[in-house]
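The freezer alarm interrupted the setup, so I double-checked each line after restarting. Inputs confirmed:
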Amino acid sequence: MSAQLEKPIFEYSVRGRGAEDQWPRDPGPEAIEDLPAALRRTRRPLLPEVSELEAVRHFTRLSQLNFSIDTHFYPLGSCTMKYNPKACNSLAMLPEFLARHPLSPETVGQGLLACLYELQEMLKAVTGMQAVALSPMAGAQGEYAGVAMIRAYHRARGDLERNEIIVPEAAHGTNPATATMCGCVVREVPVNAEGDVDLEALKAAVGPKTAGIMLTNPSTLGVFERRIEEVARIVHTAGGLLYYDGANLNAILGKVRPGDMGFDVIHVNLHKTFSTPHGGGGPGAGPVGVSARLAPFLPVPVVGRRGERYCWLTERDLPQSIGRLSGFMGNAGVLLRAYIYMRMLGREGMAKVSEYATLNANYLLAQLTRAGFDAAYPDRRATHELIITLKRQAKELGTTAMDFAKRLLDHGMHAPTTYFPLLVPECLLIEPTETESKAALDAFVAAMGEILAEAAKEPERVTGAPHTMPVRRLDDVRAAKQLDLTWKPTGAHAIPTTS
Amino acid sequence: MSNVPSDLKYTKSHEWVRTLSDGTVEVGITDHAQHALGDLVFVEVPEAGRKLTAGEPFAVVESVKAASDVYAPIAGEVTEGNPALAAEPEAINSDAYGKGWLMRLRPAAAGAAPALLTAAEYQKLVAEEGG
Amino acid sequence: MAFIPHTREDVAAMLAAIGVGSIEELFDEIPANLRLGALSGVPESLSEMEIGRLMAERARLDGRPLCFIGAGAYEHHIPAAVWAIATRGEFYSAYTPYQAEASQGTLQLLYEFQTMMASLTGLDVSNASLYDGASAMAEASLMAVRANRKSHSQRILVPSTVHPHYRKAARAVAGNQGLVFEELPYCTEDGRILPGALERYDGQDITALVIQQPNFFGRLEDVDTLCDWAHARNILVVAVVNPTSLALLKPPGSWGTKGADIAVGEGQPLGVPLSSGGPYFGFMTARMEHVRQMPGRIVGRTVDAAGRAGFTLTLQAREQHIRRAKATSNICTNQGLLVTAATVYLSLMGPAGLERVAAASHARTRELVGALTRVPGVRRLFRGPAFHEDAIAIDRPVAPLLETLAARGIVGGLDLSEHYPQLGQALLVCATETKTSADIERYATVLAECLREARAA
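Predicted 3D structure, all chains:
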């Protein structure tokens, strides 16, 4: 890891410098003569003025300040940080796919459309749903589409009272936020001590105002919702629909299908289960799958087939669609990467993913327990992820889950997810994924053991961590109070911005 | 154990109420609440003249890890929002019952005031919540 | 191939440590009737070599026709360094920078991006991206409702010269929260908002006015007059802009007397290939007073425990993972990789390079329209200046013409009849700095041929 920090790129700027060879030839002042003077820009924007090498060096050095899957063990629970195969990137970036304008005629897009159509079919097959739309650009947009479809379904049947969405208290924050965005009211139901939804509370919560319930299975607590069929029956009997948050699909891929569990609508996170890159925050893709009764409401466009020809189905073909969610057809490049990955996995590979993800998580559960850590749900099988709670250590030694997370960075490993789910105090949610080796897992357990020992002997090393990263712990309070959100030129670095 | 002054009234949602000599009331969040939120970075107080119903959210207090609504304990009209909190939100952390007051309110004339908790009752509530 | 590294010995050791006899046992909590036997509907696994051949065939099928469409996605030259850097594993396979100490690369890059976008749009703050331009406009409308305390109607005025897909997406995304989008008519002679269109709203409670510049037809709206009209009536102004154009055109922060309040747009022109429609990225900037109402992630500079400068995500209390049901938006994942590309692109272009790209594109479009309107049966649709995109009218049906052109390797433009039937047989065309005079000549020649054939038939 490079320990030397980089200056903001603006501090390298020299007036008049630039990567000129990359610019088009100067068209001369006549080129813009016809633009009205009143609409012309007068002050130059603050953009870097550096050579190509300076830019390349700056951003390469910045990249070296990051942890990433390519460089570090990254067991973030509920994020599924599995290896991103290089072929998915290079094949999705074939020049023909990159050069294609989204509004090109379908006749010059049959290759792309074939890939997307087959992706829809494969997603139907692994989820057990009847129809799929690919356009939602992230899991959260997929959730929005799903809840919007549930609402549209009830409205189309004249069932206008149904505006309540039930959410387990352990749910990911996007779930209640999505319900609100759809104009629904959120009702939370508790989860019992074993991690299952409290069925009695659920029975009390459903009624004529229930639009649906949002669940993930395995749940955010890392355990399988064992009575899911009963949950489905309760909600369906009350007239509501079931929404499946696909964040944890890696645990059951190829082994269990949400459609079989009774879900009416699901979203899949391609950037989790299907290994498209996280890219420092995105892009993702959140395709939605539905049962037959919700198919008319799918967001557009959807890939269709007429005989031998692939085509886009739009509002004309799906008049009851909830509409379009994006400017074009969603994140095509992400969809292609997922398609390539799924073709490489194939039928045999799908089940292997969940088998080895589950093996890895259960192995970590066993080894961490041996090393002295407390599992949040010790009597349950781990699914693709597990939760340990550091509540005892926090009380006895004064070291929190956040402290452990920061100290792991010094061991060259990215921390697991901290403080989610909110229900488990001082928790670490750990998801190794199937692409990590036993050796990587053993190294992680060893590091955790070392930190535990250190917490007892020299707690300040843990509470003051990280010590070897490019920066120490950052002052969040100051960041929120003294907002410094854009670089400003001062003194020597003041760059005149008038032309 | 958090600080719970005996001369104030309280709500279940962790607001305190102080009756002033001119009949208006002063409202803020309790010591327990400020502790749970952590260092406050931003506070939004209501403008004078705003009319509130009991239970209506009237302010937002924001820390790095949480943002919380603050609810009107009784109905009335806002006479003043604390102007000092814009520059110094941390006054709520250091002096929740004094400099950290959020607003002053003229209680609505008619209607029964919802039952406010005594210091003892509020203390019991906090203990039950594990605070 | 599932990229699984375990050997048989590894598996045996791990099963022993767990205390089970087989991997199947680890699924014993799942009801047996839910467990799949074989998975149907998924083809057999392919090796990397095999999928490589398949994808190459499919790409060959689509080919690389000459592209003359804009309509919200623009083909510009992208220096090789942009994607060489963006696809470095440290950027490509990094997660959202929640653990700041392990993500200073991404965080600093985002801070630099925020700086560039704020300046480019002439406003104070930027977020770290939204999904795309269309959803950014929807989010900006929701933000205007939150930010405009003086208005309660939730009515948003949207000119019909705003991109049709953006208008549809705004309804689909924000309509469920009670927002009402009202469309302003346009003038069919100059392709701009009808001058008297706003008069009927005088004295009414309106929350925001959306202004797209250049508009969907490439026309230049009278942004100063529109902006001042809105501000005089306590209406917030949401600007929808093309970032390349901002190298030459007055940025939203300078519109009218006070400048726009929020600016959004599609960031794709900045170093992101057309890629069949995505992934792109939406940008959003605003006045400082509205920063707490902004959705999406924001990076701030602060200090670490040793007093050194460092970067971290800030103002997170607005976001879904804390605020939950009261969050400003449900957005979690954004478009980080594309922002990385855009930041590198802007660093290579700089202010002078971006200005050249804008000017060259503008000149090429004028050249294109000139060449096409010299073909019999083709005329320019609107009078007045257009920026790097324009509309032409043709005396033959457009849809079959476009098919014929495509068969000859030219993607000629966007048929306007679907969204603007009152314009008759009309086509939206665009040429950027990537097109040469020879390309333009070729289009004009082939167009002339196609029209002759169509008339003869």
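Quick read of the result. Residues 80-344 of chain C form a domain with the Aspartate Aminotransferase; domain 2 fold (CATH 3.40.640.10).
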